[in-house]
Amino acid sequence: MTLSKEILRTIEQKLSAQVTGSKPVSGGSINHAYCLLAKNEKYFIKINSKSKFPGMFDAEAAGLNAMAGAGANVPQVILNDSIADESFLLLEWIEPRRPTAGASAVLGRNLAQMHRSTSDHFGLDHNNYMGSLRQGNTKHLSWSQFFIAERLQPMVKIAADKKLMNLSDITSFEILYKNLPDLFDEESPSLLHGDLWGGNYLVSADETPYLIDPAISYGHREFDLAMTTLFGGFSNEFYDAYQEAFPLARDWRQRIDLWNLYPLLVHLNLFGIGYLAQVRACLKRYV
Q1: Do the Cβ atoms of 129 and 53 come closer than 8 Å?
Q2: Which of 58, 81, 120, 195 is catalytic?
């Protein structure tokens, strides 16, 4: 998918300036992404198919704005629009650098501040995406109800329909659903990033950390912290700063594998059977 003349014209109208340059950049497996130059400023744009991923960028823009409203640093949303079957999202460009200890500590404190943004329900007023999979956010009164109905059950069904799981796996999940309320202490819902792995934050040239690519909902904050451990990319300074700002339960690390069942199921459904052993190993700890 390339930058069409219609998209460029719409962007130029928004910026009141001509786009004088563009080059492809990394944007993940779902989107085509570019760095644009206009008015001697850089901008980030990503494009995908409106019919294949309806509402994806609407949800992403809403997630970025919600996190910004809760005190997180995020790239500014400049334009979210679609032309024919092309949806696109234009964001402020963040010039990245390697994370430093200081930036990691700021990220931990900022995430703790964002997690203090609360709601009277678990869920959200709209659905969104986790990667390329649709993610339901129907509101529930408890985290256990939400995590089962909106996170685990839909992913287990997809895996079963794809024959990526057997009957024993499905039975184990049914046991987990019964056990889940007794495995943790409920907390007030926190605004979650929802997809907080090491590739979903950037550190700018001035060492400011920015959260990107959200899959937000209001949920248990241990979920975000658990996912930071799944693929690495977060330092001790990050965890120390978070704990100082908003301490977690002392035994929160005992539930890392529990909450990571969801992103592992997502990976199983997106990338195949290679993730099944990890799903089973995590599941075995709690059934």
Answers
A1: yes
A2: 195
